[in-house]
Specification:
Layout (H helix, E strand, L loop, with lengths): L1 E2 L5 H7 L5 E8 L3 E8 L13 E16 L2 E14 L4 E3 L13 H10 L5 H8 L3 H15 L10 E10 L3 E8 L4 E7 L3 H11 L1 H4 L4 E4 L3 H10 L3 E4 L1 H22 L2 H7 L3 H5 L8 H12 L2 H18 L3 H18 L5 H9 L1 H10 L4 H16 L6 H11 L4
Parallel strand pairs: 3-5, 7-10, 10-11
Antiparallel strand pairs: 1-2, 2-3, 4-5, 5-6, 7-8, 8-9
Helix pairs in contact: 2-4, 3-4, 5-7, 8-12, 12-13, 16-17
């Protein structure tokens, strides 16, 4: 390796100027630049910041830095193991590298930016580093930037679950709805899981939460009631989903019992049946739907019930919505569609949260966008073995930074 002194030495001295260190030399090979730093100041204690320390040992250390053009750049410097009067004993404070890290802070920051746009494998290939090193850098970077619950005051939250692994492995995701950010993630979807969020938030802030939007999941309901005075709002899309499941069940029953010609008419019409009538714009689709419903009375009754309750949730008057919902319950009984009776029973059991929806007009619709992002993160990593890292990536991508 030969020594090369640049006529632009002052530029390099500025680029590699660190606290208590200055540029001493540059050595270059075909693919690498070695930047040699010289210590010019006292050793600092990372615990108390004192300069008055006892040096026990001195080590020569080499770390990766940002590339210089296409060449790999390494920093070489001496660091001290110190003993301070405050009681600290260990490696001195260095402003450009973490203790025991193989990369400079500048390179770690660059890597953490890359990992928001590419997989660990791609980032490790880009920087010619082991993927485990890249992962640890990314984890540490995200942890350093996480928003502490002590710094925020959520008043309207959404609670949802996301599957991170087959076999009913779930994470509980809490969002600040007005801020459109994920603020907390916990393992499983139990009462104790959500309790942990409220405990971390603190009882004073928990009692300031005014609204909590969620699915009809009793463990979450129990936790919200125990820890807050919030209005519990059940997501209307969860109710509509249950209604659509019943409608689809009736469609399959009618299809199984239908004659050959009727089956041909019903084939590939699932989308039309489950779609809102007012959202259909293609005249051919509208004509096809009307023709199908005219020829199937049970399907027609079920479709009308689906459209009725969807219209109820679209109403802007809370009082009329409650009246219309009670009338819808009676319409289900009068229709003879027994498949809808369990849904009616479910809605009656959770009527308080549905009435609160009519009051606040709040949904968990935003969670679907976050869930899509989360699934993209999961697919990019082919599933996450390290679930803690998965949680951090969700917070990074969905606003908890």
């Amino acid at each position: 390796m030969r020594t090369k002194r640049s006529k632009y030495k002052r530029v390099f001295e500025h680029l590699f100027s660190f606290q208590e260190y200055k540029l001493f030399d540059l050595k270059e090979t075909k693919n690498e630049v070695l930047v040699i730093l010289k210590k010019v100041g006292p050793s600092k204690c990372p615990a108390c910041g004192s300069d008055h320390t006892i040096i026990e040992e001195t080590y020569t250390r080499v770390i990766r830095d940002l590339n210089l053009r296409q060449k790999t750049s390494n920093l070489q410097f001496e660091e001290n193991k110190i003993q301070c009067s405050c009681g600290y004993r260990g490696i001195e404070y260095l402003d450009f590298v973490r203790p025991y890290s193989r990369c400079s802070k500048s390179l770690e920051e660059e890597i953490s930016v890359c990992t928001t746009m590419m997989t660990l494998t791609d980032a490790s290939l880009m920087w010619n580093l082991d993927w485990k090193t890249v992962k640890e850098i990314d984890k540490r970077s995200i942890q350093d930037k996480l928003v502490d619950l002590k710094t925020i005051n959520p008043t309207i939250i959404g609670v949802d679950e996301i599957a991170y692994k087959k076999g009913h492995k779930y994470l509980t995701v809490v969002r600040d709805i007005p801020a459109r950010k994920v603020i907390w993630i916990g393992f499983k979807r139990k009462t104790e899981t959500l309790d942990a969020f409220f405990q971390e938030l603190g009882p004073e802030k928990s009692l300031k939460i005014q609204i909590c939007c969620m699915d009809m999941w009793d463990p979450y309901v129990a936790s919200v009631r125990k820890n807050t005075n919030a209005d519990i709002v059940f997501d209307k899309f969860h109710v509509i989903k249950k209604i659509n499941e019943v409608l689809d069940k009736i469609r399959r029953r009618v299809f199984a019992q239908a004659e050959k010609e009727t089956r041909k008419l019903m084939k590939h019409k699932r989308f039309l049946i489950l779609h809102r009538r007012k959202n259909l714009t293609d005249e051919k689709d509208i004509e096809s739907l009307e023709q199908l419903l005219k020829s199937n009375e049970p399907l027609y009754k079920a479709y009308v019930l689906k459209e009725e309750i969807a219209d109820i949730f679209d109403d802007v008057n809370a009082e009329s919505e409650i009246i219309r919902l009670e009338q819808w319950f009676q319409n289900v009984i009068d229709s003879g569609c027994e498949e809808f009776l369990p849904v009616v029973s479910m809605i009656r059991s959770y009527l308080y949260g549905i009435h609160n929806y009519f009051k606040h007009k709040l949904t968990n619709a935003g969670s679907e966008g976050f869930n899509n992002k989360i699934n993209v993160i999961k697919r990019a990593a082919y599933g996450f073995v390290d679930v803690e890292y998965f949680k951090l990536k969700i917070l990074q991508q969905c606003g908890g930074i």
